[in-house]
Specification:
The complex is a heterodimer of chains A (about 110) and B (about 110). Chain A has about 110 residues and is mostly beta strands. In chain A, about 0% of the residues lie in helices and about 50% in strands. Chain A is built from no helices and eleven strands. In chain A, strands 2, 4, 5, 6, 9, 10 and 11 form a seven-stranded mixed sheet that branches. Chain A starts with a strand and ends with a strand. Chain B has about 110 residues and is mostly beta strands. Chain B is built from no helices and eleven strands. In chain B, the strands form two sheets. In chain B, strands 2, 4, 5, 9, 10 and 11 form a six-stranded mixed sheet that branches. In chain B, strands 1-3-8-7-6 form a five-stranded antiparallel sheet, with no helix packed on it. The chains are: A mainly beta (about 110), B mainly beta (about 110). At the A-B interface, β5 and β10 of A face β4, β5, β9 and β10 of B.
Amino acid sequence: ETGVTQSPTHLIKTRGQQVTLRCSSQSGHNTVSWYQQALGQGPQFIFQYYREEENGRGNFPPRFSGLQFPNYSSELNVNALELDDSALYLCASSLRSEGNSPLHFGNGTRLTVT
Amino acid sequence: DQQVKQNSPSLSVQEGRISILNCDYTNSMFDYFLWYKKYPAEGPTFLISISSIKDKNEDGRFTVFLNKSAKHLSLHIVPSQPGDSAVYFCAALDNYGQNFVFGPGTRLSVLP
């Protein structure tokens, strides 16, 4: 069973630039969620994708956008980067079926905005 | 406004003893709860879950207790091992079943 993989592991960008982060879901999973984890805090929900459509969004501005592909992999795009966007970005996959199921996380992408 | 709270930022326990990590929530509509463990430079790893129809769930050394009336859950680790040293997050599934709301975490140190 292949777990959730994210790339790149680390990234340094300049304020105002754009960034794309990538995620491959765990095999058999059909739902992808993205979370932002700032230092010393718990993960904060950005959005979720199911069947290639956004299926829920947290309190993040529209410059945070995403995609889910037919193979259930996903991208997170952030435009007009701000210093406060510096954080660990976590991708998590899950299987949407009857009943609740836990999220399975990748190791994250550490984004630094200077 | 934090809907999921972990009021102890850190906890130290002697190896072999019990570790008890606590979590409180404010939204009475939450009905599915998870505990995660996180090591540095890794993503959170799922440990154990509990549904609101239960008050206890056990998996090996890990037991989660849920008190719905108090809006409180706890994770017990018995016996604690040095490898359990990590940050532990509790999370609750929101009303729409899409978003897990996480607490800020508790750093557990198990001393040999």
